[in-house]
Amino acid sequence: MRVSTQFPIAVHALMMLAYFPEERITSEIVAQSVGCNPVIVRNLFVKLKRAGLLSVKAGRGKMELARPAGKISLWDIYVAAEACKADEIFKFQANASDDCPVGCNLRKILFSHLDDAVTAMRDELSGTTLEDLERELETLTGTSAHIFPVSG
Fold first, then answer.
1. Quick one: DSSP state of residue 147?
2. Where are the domains of the chain?
3. Pick from 31, 35, 80, 143: CA 20 to 30 A from residue 152's CA?
């Protein structure tokens, strides 16, 4: 299974909002940190806002998490960023042959195994929150100062 770059970029963006809560994080800032085009980030912001993970504060247009970091799981972000339902993670060819015993039966055989894989993925991603990632980041950096990097 291959997941697009949408999910990791969405996690990156929300992590920046969680880790630098006092800063005005823009699509340009996130794009610079991720190493992608700001348009990609802006499109993700729309998805994240629609999913109730991101809100825009009136006035300066400051973005912030719509709920506490401990209440946003990686599964929430995955579903928002990839804009799919769990049963759409694995795609099947719609026009498989009815004449071939493999073509007409493989979906039935494979479905329960793939369903188990999706359940395991959902369970694993649901058990990790942005707050968990923040703690991991603090362990890696050795600080909880949350100092925003100034680029010049």
1. P
2. 6-87+129-141
3. 143
Contact between residue 96 and residue 104 where contact means Cβ atoms under 8 Å apart: yes
Burial label for 17, CB within 10 Å (0-12, 13-18, 19+), is: buried
| Dist. CA 68–CA 33, nearest whole Å | 22
As a 3-state breakdown, the chain gives helix, strand, coil percent values, each rounded to 5, of 60, 5, 35
- Which amino acid is present at 56? V
Distance CA 54, CA 17 (A): 9
Q: Is 120 a residue whose pLDDT tops 80?
A: yes
Whole-structure pTM over 0.90, yes or no?
Answer: no
Domain 6-87+129-141 coded CATH 1.10.10.10 = yes
